[in-house]
Specification:
Blueprint: H1 2-38, H2 43-71, H3 73-88
Helix pairs in contact: 1-3, 2-3
């Protein structure tokens, strides 16, 4: 019974991280577009940057799916949440 409680807590934590970072990424996407445009990057290049970012996300899903089959979905979701969260905490940006 305790395992289900831990799994539920992990799932809730993951969903919370996902919601927060999805909203953050969506808002930052527009801000980055404005930043690129203000610095003279043409719209076509901004679209290319965003396309490459999305391709990177899709390629990242391939090993995540394999690992989910091997070690379990919740462990992979938790690990990916930690990786995503750590990316936003860059000590050089403080």
């Amino acid at each position: 019974m305790k395992s289900k409680s831990v799994n539920f807590k992990i799932a809730v934590l993951f969903l919370t991280f996902t919601a927060v970072f999805t909203l953050f990424r969506s808002s930052m996407s527009g801000i980055f577009s404005l930043f690129y445009a203000k610095n003279g990057i043409p719209n076509a290049n901004i679209s290319s940057i965003k396309s490459f970012q999305n391709i990177g996300i899709m390629l990242g899903l391939l090993p995540a799916g394999y690992l989910a089959d091997r070690i379990g979905r919740l462990k992979v979701l938790s690990l990916s949440s930690i990786v995503i969260a750590s990316i936003f905490f860059n000590p050089n940006s403080i």
